[in-house]
Write a structure and sequence with these properties.
Structural class of chain A: alpha/beta
Order of helices and strands of chain B: HHEHHEHHEHEHHHH
Number of domains of chain B: 2
Helix content of chain B: over 70%
Largest interface: A-B, 26 and 19 residues
Oligomer: heterodimer
CATH topology of the largest domain in chain A: Rossmann fold
Structural class of chain B: alpha+beta
CATH class of the largest domain in chain A: Alpha Beta
Mean pLDDT of chain A: 92
Low-confidence stretches of chain A: none
Low-confidence stretches of chain B: none
Radius of gyration of chain B: 31 Å
Strand content of chain B: 5-15%
Number of domains of chain A: 2
Shape of chain B: rod-shaped
Amino acid sequence: MIHFESVTKTYANQSRPAVESVTLDVEKGEFVFLVGPSGSGKSTFLRLILREERPTDGRIYVAGRDLARLTNWKVPQLRRRIGCVFQDFRLLPTKDVYQNIAFALEVIGKPRRFIRKVVPEVIDLVGLEGKGDRMPDELSGGEQQRVAMARAFVNRPMILLADEPTGNIDPATSIGIMKVLDRINRTGTTVVMATHDAAIVDSMRKRVIELEYGKIVRDQSRGVYGQAY
Amino acid sequence: MRAQFVFGEVWIGLRRNLTMTVALVVVVAISLSLLGTGLLFVKQVDHTRALWQNRIELSVYLCSQTPLTPRCTKNGPATAAQTDQVRKTLTSLPQVVTVTYQSAAQAYAQFRKEFADQPELVSSVQPGDIPASFAVKLKNAEADASPVGAAVNGMPGVQSVGDDSSILTNFYKLLDGARNAVIVVAIILIVAAILLVANTIRLSAFNRRRETAIMRLVGASNFYVQLPFLVEGMIAGLFGWLVAVGLLIAARSGLDGLQSYFPFHVELSTFDLVEVVVVTMLIGLALCGSTSFLTLRRYLRV
């Protein structure tokens, strides 16, 4: 599903690469934690998958596509197969829950009949039954993150990228968020989650990839966050 | 393609920076109407030119029995041979279209007819007073008048050469000057309009950066991301154009009113107006559309 071949990314005006000779494979349906301190290259890794950045060196394949060969105008096609969740939710404050989720389908030109059918389904999936007409500022952080996950998942992506989705949420609520991610993973969607949350990583017992200074220092199936922390 | 969605976004965009939108509409309206007025002016001047072009003739007056210039006093009235020689010279010139001879008797008859309501004037003029003449129609009344005049002026039997077009030269200069001034001001305003379109779109892109970021993230095509902004710019341009149409209709009647000061009426046809209105619309849409597009390329990268 995601295949990196000695990928290096050096940003302009920086001597040290953000990601350095990373080679890895993430299979379809896997759940992967990406851990490591700030600046270890987790976000760059996710941006490379989305092709928001191009690697300085190496090859990346996502959902069977060689990203180096992907023309600019085909990038949207790639992104339709990838869902994204962020620490800061990124909801539209002027739209309610339903509209926020529907927006993701409207802008890729889905018919209204389809939207009316799938949005309520996904609202139920993330556990927000009956809250479709709430505005984001009427929701708790955990609920807002559920909306963001619903929006990321509504188009049934093959891959879901989550960049510290529990970063702004208290531990108790985080468990609920992780349950939703797990549920999404069980539908066959590959989940890659960058996180600092040791408790969550330890409790889930999924594959853990640890980055340090842009290099993979550990790749462990059914791993924990790490002894050092 | 979901038209309803795009127009919904456009409406939000226009409403959110209402002041910029209004400023844009006003500037587009003024610049387009000035440009349109300039174009109408051009048409008016062209029509006037064409009208005079057909009417203006070079008049070559021959010496009459009542000599008016020293040359005629010395040589007496033009003889038949001299008259023939002048005609031959005139017809041989390439700039000349037709040459019409009017004898002294015909000229007198015409004079009597034209001034029939002024009997004192008619009675004071004798048949021989009004000279015979050649009315010379030229290919280009303005440019050809002086060389042709020079060719025959001073020939034996020629009293004088009357060039109507010289009277109009200053008039044309005035019209051309006014037209150029209008067009220069219009161009300056169009530059202002372009900058304002760019700024409005930039502001709009900034206002909607959240939406745009999400659109890119969920894989909306560039076209879909940019279309609302493009339509926004073009709708503002269209509103400006509509206002400009009203102003142009007013400008047309103003220009027609100006014509009443001149002996020959040249009115702008509705066709002229429609033509100018369509041209200004195309210019307005192209201006707003292309500026929006170019601005977006800078601010909405994938």
